[in-house]
Amino acid sequence: MIHARCEQCAEPTAAYDAIRYGSMETGHRLLCTQCFNAEVARRYGTTDLENVRPDPIDMVDSAGDSHRFHFQMRLLGPTMIVLDAFEVREDVRCGYEFRIMGEPDDDVLTLLGRLVEKMRRALSVRFLCAENHRLRISDQTVQGRISSDMAGFENMPVVVVDGKEIMWDDFGRMLMAFEGWQFRLDIADPADEL
């Protein structure tokens, strides 16, 4: 696992738990999530934040595959916190990602419970299936997340469906099964319910 050191507490910090914080005028520092939240709380005078780090959990999807989710709670100002759940592979966030938003004085266990319920609903549905060793869209609906190909030379999107990263060209080939049909593309904030 690749680690950096938090510039505030000097603790080793996984890449997925590190946040660059600052401004062009003052410069940026690499902070762990805990120190980031403490810094933002100090800046905005927020005293209600329960700065916790939930332990990772394992959940099983509808195909019986297990997924380990890590959590990150971030204070984004005086009135908003974000709680993310995400998979990690080779120290990088990838696969399924979920988000819920709340307020600094919200009960963290209640937010966590709402997030886990959102995760269960999403993991209970499959949008892809395998046919002749190739993935295809199972029905007429597909839902996922837009990401990017960090290893590629071109700035091409990658879609994450059923926790699987699918290159843009491969996704285009899946859509060709519906050539001549209509479609609607709705883009939503990660915290919204679809």
From TrEMBL:
Residues 51-124 form the DUF7686 domain. InterPro entries: DUF7685 (IPR056102), DUF7686 (IPR056103), DUF7713 (IPR056130). Keywords: Plasmid. Residues 133-192 form the DUF7713 domain. It comes from the Bacteria. Residues 5-45 form the DUF7685 domain. The keyword Mitochondrion does not apply. The keyword Phosphoprotein does not apply. Pfam families: DUF7685 (PF24734), DUF7686 (PF24735), DUF7713 (PF24828). This is Uncharacterized protein. It comes from Paraburkholderia terrae.
